[in-house]
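To close the section, here is one more complete example, presented without commentary so you can practise reading it yourself. The ligand is protoporphyrin IX containing FE.
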Amino acid sequence: MSRLTTYLKGRARHMVLARVGGNGIDLSQLDRVPESLSWPLQRNGTDPVERIAELREREPVSRLTSFLGLTVWVVTGDAEAREALADTTSYSNDIRPFMGRRGSTTDGDIGGLGFTDPPDHTRLRRLLTPEFTMRRLERLRPRVAAIIDGQLDEIERLGSAGGTVDLVPTFAFPVPFLVICELLGLPDEDRDTFRELGSARFDVSYGGQGTFGAVSGSRRFLMEATRKQRTNPGDGLIGQIIREHGEEINDFDLAGLADGVFTGGLETSASMLALGTAVLLDHPDDYHRLTTDPAVVDRTVEELLRYLSVVQVSFPRFPKHDVELGGQTVAKGDVIVCQLPGANRDARNGAGLDGFDAGRAPTSHLAFGHGFHRCVGAELARLELRAAFPALARRFPDLAVATDELDYRERSIVYGVESLPVRLRTGAALR
Ligand code: HEM
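Output:
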């Protein structure tokens, strides 16, 4: 207890010091996120902790905590979350007033679309969306299939002797990582650095310093990639935007867009692949059915997205004036976050939403958010997941998790597992 008290005192002192004179509160200076703020990121395995359901029953919009003089609200109800996420008149996504000087590498925005308001958001998102149309994504489909096949070959090579293989570094992470490198048009030699920056920035266990350090690191990196492509545009998203809209966007904003795509698409899809595989292996009939019918694949992927809700909270929303939400008055100057796994299990939308049911008629879920900031990469993510899970089930029908306890990530905005050890076969020879 005394260690805890010392720790808390130290934190309180640090938090006070973290205030930046005249510049608002500097979240980037926090080196550990307080428990009262981070508990909604905890889970029991794949489920949100029970407190989330209790809160949703009692108060779907609830005052979570107050720290550094800032009141933080958590929204656990589906209808209330949709209302907040869709309302750009009442809420801002602009985080700059809360960042002090450190979160920004220059005077511009800090990390892409999710932290940007109209009209900048509208202007920048309009540049990005053509890269995610079904027509453009179709061009990626054969590359996605080849990337998946390449990784399955590696898994087969590593596991054919009968030992265990970790699916995180061999499958869940490299598939979306290589897909995003393709999408952005990044050269091979940049890929290792990207890999490291991608993981670090979503891990809130190390607080603001680690997260925001990684943000500015990947941002600098993409700034350099963008500068290079300005003179020699590549085939990917960065080069395409330079060719078609080069006059309308500066390097800083374009690097920010690329950064949002990189970080928004990597850890999220990687977590879906790892956790999704774990859930499927726990439901072997559903796993095997993936090889039978594309309609089954689509439905199963949608249910996995809802059930896992790997993005645990929305980008923060900042009320522009006092707003009534779910019977509460949320004041200007407060912060709202929507807790998506909780909202996606809201009993007001039907029974049994706490469990995974691959046969469930698709429900409208919030795993990709809602409204103006809804995930721009949703269709790419679906394309990857719909290709990867059945390919895995076809290649390794006897796949089995090789541990009793999975190593779930703690308090991470994007939920996931650190590793997923599997065995490729339980008896029969491969293929
Ligand atoms: C299964 C995988 C994914 C999940 C679960 C996911 C989830 C989300 C969620 C919940 C939001 C909205 C947050 C909010 O409104 O506050 C979001 C936004 C975003 N996502 Fe994804 N995402 C995934 C994959 C991707 C991919 C593959 C990309 C790009 C290649 C991507 C890029 C983005 C971007 C750029 C935004 C910000 C959009 C905006 O603010 O206008 N995401 N994502």
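Once you have examined the tokens, check your reading against these statements. The radius of gyration is 22 Å. Residues 85, 112-114, 125, 180, 260-261, 264-265, 268-269, 272, 310-311, 314-315, 367-369, 373-377, 380-381 surround protoporphyrin IX containing FE (CB under 6 Å).
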